Amino acid sequence: MESIFGDECETVIADARYGFVAGLLKDIVRKPPLERVTLSDQIDMLVISRWLGLPLLLVVMYLTFQFVFRLSEPLMNWISLVFGQLGVIASGIGGWEGSLLAEGVIGGIGSVLIFVPPIFLLFAAISVLEDCGYMARAAFVTDKVMHKIGLHGRSFIPLVLGFGCNVPGVMATRTIENTKDRITTILVNPFMSCGARLPIYVLLAGYFFAGHAGLVVFSMYAVGAAVAMLMALAFRKSILRGTSSHFVMELPPYRLPTLRGILTHVWERGRLFLKKAGTFIFGVVVLIWLVDYFGALEPVGRAIAPIFVPCGFGQWEAAVSLMFGFLAKEVVVGTMGTLFAAEEGVLGQAIATHLGWTPLAALAFMVFCVLYVPCIATVATIKSETNSWKWPVFTVLYTTATAWVAATLIFQIGGLLLG
Amino acid sequence: MAGNPNSGKTTVFNNLTGARQHVGNWPGVTVEKKEGICRWKSHNIRIVDLPGVYGLTAYSPDEIVARNFIVEEKPDAVVDVVDASNLERNLYLVVQLLEMGARLIVALNMMDEAASRGYRIDAEGLSHLIGAPVVPMQANRNRGTLELLDEIAKVVNREMQIPQLIVNYGREVEEEIAKLERHISAAGELARKYPPRWLAVKLLERDQQIVEALQTSEHG
Q: If exposure means fewest CB atoms within 10 Å of the residue's CB, which of A12, A306, B107, B218 is most exposed?
């Protein structure tokens, strides 16, 4: 049977089906004599043009981040203020109950709720870009660049989503049909610095690099993205060898997004974060308070700390913060706050005095935080999305190794340069 | 609820089910499964939102999930949401669903966009040609939802039969299909589940999943 038709059999069948459809169309659709150039086509002449496409994408990305962070800043300040006040009231109770309520419960809820504005706003911005049809163009425009690192345009959206949270970022790789393309996109996703890591940069850059904080924070994102690209390229040349698949990319017409559609998307993604915040992160913060209260944190921290001496942050407090960061990145700053019993506003100062960090050590610590093990929720998502233990375990190991090497290089080479 | 990506499928689904939705995963694969309940004239209609697909091949998990659901769960009705401004590609899925013997209703969505491009679509004519109801809609304005529910009710209550669509694949292919169909009908179990002609076509398309299923059913 196959010998008669050879490879053409599928084609013959598909052609016949399309022929049938063409026949249907002829009977039921009357098209205008001259196909009009639609508004969508006109916009696309600019948006996906060879010269303007990429610069325009960068502008859109920049505006998106501006929108998200500018708008969320006052909201975050407000939440911080409210919880600060609540904490003051709670510690008035006194005793261990007051401490648990103020530092554990209220501090815990506050340290999580503070990320609701940036994360929800980022999801909202991404939904608008998706619903109006721009994201499909972004995938198209980046396709050529992505091919250079062994991926393709469809990997772009999952990577951008990673800036919000790596969990939806990893889940969004479902649209990638080729398994190797998909695994590669999943493996490098944790390097896309998620919203939960932002407070670390804001805190440390704000204190140690006052005046250049914005630049330093931005460069953390750039470091993450650059490492993601390098790693993707490395994977495509080694364990996930192969050429990235080519496909026809669909460009849906531009549409005005509806408020309902955006709210639905924001809720679908944001609710995952709220769920994690309400249960997991909150539990972790209370747990840290408990362990700390009974004096068990320090020995654990001292056991791990020597590993980080070459990186420039070999203090037990840093080790403990990073360890709890595996549970949720939001916790890194919160742990330091608990350990030094310092409010957000004076935490930078407290870190400098207690740990004796130089700006170089702070920089190495930030880079380590960009790159090291993704939070446990992301690891769990990688497990369920790849249906195996192999890839999540591999992710944990290789990201942490990468982070250690990068932080050590920065601290050692930086130390030589600065003499 | 089936349809191409970007056809407004999710909007139609939301219009029908409102907030009564449940999100989970399809067993064994990481494709999202959305379900909802719609109350309509004393009916409780359970609606399952299938992944957006262009065809029903075995190449992607989405397409396998979509077609297995239709074949194995035998839903009382399948609504294919079609982007009227992109008819050619969308009808390709309509044709494949009808070939499978799905009890199909076509939700002809985005009629406004088609009109703004100057297309004039004869929905009744289409319904006549394919033998399935066709409902013009504009889901983003929630237009056509009630008409769609009327058609769903008719199909679910068996007031309307949807014939299996037969596409003519040309003399050579048709001869092969006929031969395979006889062979398949004799093979038993699988042929009772799937329409034999569809299985024959899938075999000729060298559909990996169907080839394997037929091998195990023959040996077992």
A: A306
Residues B149 and B176 in one domain: no
Q: What's the domain count of chain B?
A: 2
DSSP secondary structure string, A243-263? PPPP-PPP-PPP-PPPHHHHH
pTM of the model: 0.62
Name the residue in chain B with its Cα closest to that of A381: B30
Element (H, E) at B40: strand B32-40
Domain ranges of chain A: 6-44, 53-243+260-418
Q: Residues B177, B149: one domain?
A: no
Q: Tens digits of per-residue pLDDT, B21-62?
A: 777 776 666 677 889 998 888 888 999 999 989 888 887 788
Instruction: Kindly report the CATH number assigned to the domain that includes residue B96.
Output: 3.40.50.300
| Closest by CA position to B136, among listed B117, B110, B98, B97 | B110
- Cβ separation of B117 and A32 shorter than 8 Å? yes
Structural domain for B176, as ranges: 171-219
Chain A within 8 Å of B164 (Cβ-Cβ)?
no
The pLDDT tens digits for A159-170 are: 988 887 788 788
- pLDDT band of residue B138 (cuts 50, 70, 90) is very high
Q: Looking at residue A1, what is its pLDDT?
A: 47
Determine, yes or no, domain membership for B96.
yes
